[in-house]
Design brief:
There is one protein chain. Helix content is 41%, strand content 25%. With 361 residues, the chain is an alpha/beta fold. It has a six-stranded antiparallel β-sheet with strand order 2-1-4-5-6-7, covered by helices on one side. Strands 8-12-13-3-14-15 form a six-stranded mixed β-sheet, sandwiched between helices. Keywords: ATP-binding, Cytoplasm, DNA damage, DNA repair, DNA replication, DNA-binding, Nucleotide-binding, SOS response.
């Protein structure tokens, strides 16, 4: 899977930008706050219809503009697929082959991307909500039906929580039973998707981590499922507590992940190096998992992470991805990058202007 060209209109600091990319490696070099990360972000947005950096859509639209658009051409095996996302005051308009998709879930998956940025360490060190978002975004790329099931679950969850805010005397147990049945129906589907994904991710990441740690460490990922045995029974058991707190205390909206190295929780007790290697192992595993699910490698976005890795980790990373994935790297300098391939394009980024420097075929 390759993105051959990208077009931006009023995206961040780019009023208008047209770029053509090398099929193997593209490097964007420039000082901080010049617009390098905005390129990686726009590709991520084109794939997943949202940013990895902000939840505020307004931040994506250029100053004093009302809407923006990101479009590109995707090469998949022998097929060319034009994609376009327009962000308007009324919401998103997603198009595939110039035709509007009625649901974003039908759009997502046409371009698969894996983003690795410094903030991805939060997957290891951050709050459970960060890890749940990670799970949701990655499963959604390879199984669009997951997004539908998750949407229905979240909609029912919101409705149940609103109903729990009623005065206790006004709560109808029969209606609450109906909401619980719906929550269980979609929640069971969400948990099944997650179990399958995490099982596959664990198997692949363990092998990669063993390689990256030169056989010294064994990585395992534990799905810390909030529902222990029977979702319906646990919901009913927690009903009085939920009424008192006016929120649902049981369900996959409280799931988490645990990352263990040699049976020790790396989130709490691992060194910074172990946490970085764990994050790298998980991201590389995602690449292989998407390939297994779709038959094509995703686009890889490495946003300002190469300087965070020592020389050996850089070499390991490049050896594992170059030739497999179309890769985009943003960096402040090429000095720390070791053993780059001959096939690549280097872009210089300064003050929102991008100049192609080298193109090695």
């Amino acid at each position: 899977m390759i993105i051959s060209e990208l077009h931006l209109n009023n995206f961040r600091n780019y009023s208008h930008l047209d770029l053509k990319f090398h099929p193997h490696l593209n490097i964007f070099v420039g000082q901080n706050a010049q617009g390098k990360t905005n390129i990686a972000e726009s590709i991520y947005f084109l794939a997943l219809t949202r940013s990895h950096r902000t939840h505020a859509d307004r931040e994506l639209i250029a100053w004093q503009q009302k809407e923006m658009s990101v479009s590109g051409t995707i090469l998949k095996k022998n097929t060319t697929v034009p994609l376009e996302i327009t962000l308007t005051p009324k919401g998103r308009i997603a198009k595939v082959n110039h035709l509007k998709e009625n649901r974003l879930a039908d759009y997502i998956g046409h371009l698969n991307v894996i983003m690795f940025a410094p903030e991805d360490l939060a997957i290891i060190k951050g709050a459970p909500s960060v890890r749940r978002r990670f799970i949701d975004m990655e499963i959604g790329q390879i199984r669009p039906v997951y997004l539908y099931d998750l949407m229905r679950y979240n909609k029912t969850l919101k409705e149940r929580n609103s109903y729990l805010k009623f005065d206790a005397a006004k709560i109808d147990p029969d209606f609450l039973d109906v909401l619980d049945d719906q929550l269980v129906e979609y929640g069971e589907k969400v948990m099944t998707h997650r179990r399958q994904f995490i099982t596959s991710l664990t198997e692949i990441s363990a092998e990669l981590h063993h390689h990256l740690s030169h056989g010294q460490e064994k990585l395992s990922i534990v799905y810390a499922q909030n529902v222990k045995t029977d979702f319906a029974a646990e919901l009913k058991q927690a009903r009085d507590k939920d009424k008192f707190r006016s929120q649902t205390s049981v369900g996959p909206h409280r799931d988490d992940l645990q990352f263990l190295i040699n049976a020790i929780n790396v989130s709490n007790f691992g060194s910074q190096g172990q946490q970085r290697t764990t994050a790298l192992s998980v991201k590389l595993a995602e690449i292989e998992l998407i390939y297994q699910e779709t038959g094509e490698y995703p686009v890889l976005l490495l946003d300002d992470v190469m300087s965070e890795l020592d020389n050996q980790r850089q070499l390991d990373l490049l050896a594992l991805v170059i030739g497999k994935t179309q890769t985009f790297i943003t960096t402040t300098t090429l000095d720390h990058l070791q053993h780059l391939p001959d096939k690549m394009t280097v872009f210089e980024v300064a003050h929102g202007e991008i100049t192609e420097q080298d193109n090695h075929d």
